[in-house]
Amino acid sequence: AYMFQLIVKQTKVNRDQDHPPCVLLSLPQIPPRTEAILGKGPSPVPLMIDGAHRLQAAGADFIIMPCITAHYFLAEVIPHSPLPFISLLEECSSWVQTNLSPAQTLGLVASTGTVISKLFHHFMEKIGKKVIQPSPEEQEKLMTAIFGPGGIKAGVTSGPPKEIVVTTANSLIKRGAEAIIAGCTEIPLVLSPSDISVPLIEPMKIGARKAIIEAGCEPIE
Fold it and tell me: From the candidates 22, 67, 92, 217, which is the catalytic residue?
């Protein structure tokens, strides 16, 4: 829903008809990605492939996937997908290279699956950037803020969940992070640029802009 909102808000339009046509597939039954990465749950790949076919049947030309952790499985999905994917990781890396060239150290606030699989580490290292991550204790609190009762996934975007995310980001800044990556779908729902003293890198926002361009529309500068 947030990704769709970003596409709507970032498209330069004068009337309704100027927006790109979108097909939104919400498939919450896809198994938890972090548990699959940790070997504690079933693979999400079969349902991800099923989702790709559903989107093709609905008339989509390409796919943008809001779940960043799910990008870990993208290499398994692509050979079986009838449609191409926009990679939030690739787009984010390209954006950082263009817009944050002087920054050398980036702090990652994300789910444990994204952190331990080093998705952002690998992409950012290719452009000469170092990625630092929360301590194990901070990461545990962060997962509670995202997945726990009364967490962000439960619709709570203020109070303790937001405080934990902001505290984690600021801890990374104190350790030398020159920008913070909102590396999980839920993070930008509570962490805004005004909460921190360094730039906030938002893969979902960057990916939404790419989708607008791919759809033949013009993004707002």
Answer: 67
Q: Which of 57, 60, 27, 56 is nearest to 44 (CA)?
A: 27
Q: What is the pLDDT of residues 181-219, one digit of tens each?
A: 999 999 999 999 999 999 999 999 999 999 999 999 999
Q: Please answer whether residues 120 and 179 qualify as being in contact, where contact means their C-beta atoms are separated by less than 8 angstroms.
A: no
152, 145 contact by CB (below 8 A): yes
pTM of the entire predicted model: 0.93
Active site residue 184: yes
Q: Is 22 a catalytic residue?
A: no
Task: Compute φ and ψ for 16, nearest 5 degrees.
Answer: -55, -40
From 67, 61, 58, select the one nearest 2 (Cα to Cα): 67
Alpha-carbon gap, residue 7 to 207, rounded angstroms: 9
